[in-house]
Design brief:
The chain has 126 residues and is mostly beta strands. 14% of the residues lie in helices and 39% in strands. It holds the Pfam family YkuD.
């Protein structure tokens, strides 16, 4: 049996991911091909340095960035500063509004997301 070209293309197409960050719920949802794939608890910006709202893209990634950023960093093209999704060296901060605007999650979660999503992935923060 032969596979037609469109079916072959679909068979080998990489999944498309997107991320939605819900600051009110302090939850981050990873979508795969438009369907909920996994949800993660997060920390967000404190009132004096809130997490920016809008639609952004992941523009860079780093392994073991050092400092408070935990195991991985995924930088966003957010205006007025360097914002990103990263791990944390303070896991007790997850679920709170304590960051300088970044989105924090547990290191095992950020490693999982980092390994799945490419640069260019859309991140919507509401």
């Amino acid at each position: 049996m032969f596979i037609s070209y469109p079916d072959y293309e679909e068979l080998y197409r990489a999944p498309r991911y997107s991320i939605t960050v819900n600051t009110a719920e302090k939850r981050m949802t990873l979508y795969r091909d438009g369907k909920v794939f996994k949800t993660y608890p997060i920390a967000i910006g404190k009132p004096s340095t809130p997490t920016p709202k809008g639609t952004f893209k992941i523009i860079n990634k780093a392994v073991n960035p050092g400092g408070p950023f935990g195991a991985r960093w995924m930088g966003l093209n957010a205006p007025n500063g360097d914002y990103g999704i990263h791990g944390t060296n303070n896991p007790s901060s997850i679920g709170k509004a304590v960051s300088n605007g970044c989105i924090r999650t547990y290191n095992n979660n950020v490693i999982e997301i980092f390994n799945l999503v490419p640069i260019g992935t859309i991140v919507t923060i509401v």
